[in-house]
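As the work plan foresaw, our protein records have gained a structure token line. A representative record is set out beneath this paragraph:
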Amino acid sequence: MILLRSALFNLAFFGWTILLLLAGLPLLLAPRRAIHALGALWARGTLLLLRVLVGARLEVRGALAPGARLVAAKHQSALDTMLFYLLAHDVAYVMKKELVAIPIYGLFARHQRMILVDRKAGASALKKLVADAAAARDEGRQIVIFPQGTRTPPGAPASAYPYQPGIAALQHALRMPTTPVAINSGLAWGRRSFVKRPGRIVIEFLPEIPAGLQRAEFMRRLEETIEAATARLEREAGAPAPS
């Protein structure tokens, strides 16, 4: 039964995504915030499909304070890339530049002025990341970054997917508070997994880390905060503790 429900969800999700991409093409002529509204609709529809076809429900704990800020989130699932359309104000995702090669989606990402990172560009990529994030901050946007740079499986140690220097560069240069975010989405919608599982998907906004910390101290607090909270959410959902 779980394979059938997963197949139905995958078909419905890709159909829903393609429908929105095509229907939303005229919004490329509209102000940037119109694409944010389309993203929020995409997220709501996807959550409905998860609930009806898979039996997976979202629980949100806490909330983002208003105003420009950094948001550093655990990344376990494709779902995470759409949730912040619902949970953040005027989101600016930090994303790898290769994603703008995806037909139509790339046009939307550019129109929204998402923060694109060329991971092959070395030090110049870090400078551009900071410059683009500063422009987003000055517009009052909330900058969402996945500090490990990739989706990670539930239970995977941070040593296997280390926290990348981009988040440290941003907090140092922008002098903004950082909101850590834990999530257990990978238990329901796994990394590169066809199977989708029922259960409770929890995303939790954790206490802010203030601006102005030394880089090493900031990275230590960020990693410890996110990893401990994510492990707790996974245990609550019944996932085995890592050996």
Observations:
- The radius of gyration is 18 Å.
- Residues 2-23 form the longest helix (22 residues).
- The beta strands are 56-61, 69-73, 91-96, 115-117, 142-145, 178-183, 199-205.
- The helical segments are 2-23, 33-54, 80-87, 105-111, 123-138, 165-174, 215-236.
